[in-house]
Amino acid sequence: MWEKVYTITTMIVMVILIILMAYYATVLISKRSNIYFRGKTVKVLERIVLSTNLSITIIQAIDKIYILAVSSKNIELLDVIEYEKWHEYKKAQSLTDQQDLLDIFKRSFFNKKFGNKSPNTNPIKNNNDKKGD
């Protein structure tokens, strides 16, 4: 009885160890392959997968940004943007993302502090208005 439990436990531990080793090996290989395959003038900035065989890829080549539609059979150029415009867009997107996070934080804070009131109302201002009446 105990032999079977020991055998099953040992097998489970070995499978977990093999999975962990495979995971860390792929992480290590991906880090090393990025060093070897990284181009000095061409970089893939973003890749958005639309389906199993279609994706939108954004590539920087020197000072131009190329937006490509990549499928299993062909690559099509959608647009070319100057690097400065791309940088401005990413900067604005980052600020928008930060503002969205701030809005989410405000909503959750006000909901916890003041119940289910609308997040656009300022509870301090509403209390002052009531005192003035």
From TrEMBL:
Could you name the domain of life of the organism this protein comes from?
Answer: Bacteria
Ranges where the record places region Disordered: 114-133
Q: Name the InterPro entries for this protein.
A: Flagellar_biosynth_FliO (IPR022781)
- Membrane spanning segments where? 6-30
The processes (GO biological process) annotated in the record are: bacterial-type flagellum organization
An example Gene Ontology cellular component term from the record?
membrane
Q: Where found?
A: Cell membrane
- Keyword set includes Transmembrane: yes
Comp. bias regions, Polar residues:
117-126
Primary localization class, coarse: membrane
Organism, by scientific name, is: Anaerovirgula multivorans
Q: Which UniProt keywords apply?
A: Cell membrane, Cell projection, Cilium, Flagellum, Membrane, Transmembrane, Transmembrane helix
Write down what this protein is called: Flagellar protein FliO/FliZ
Which Pfam family is one of this chain's hits? FliO
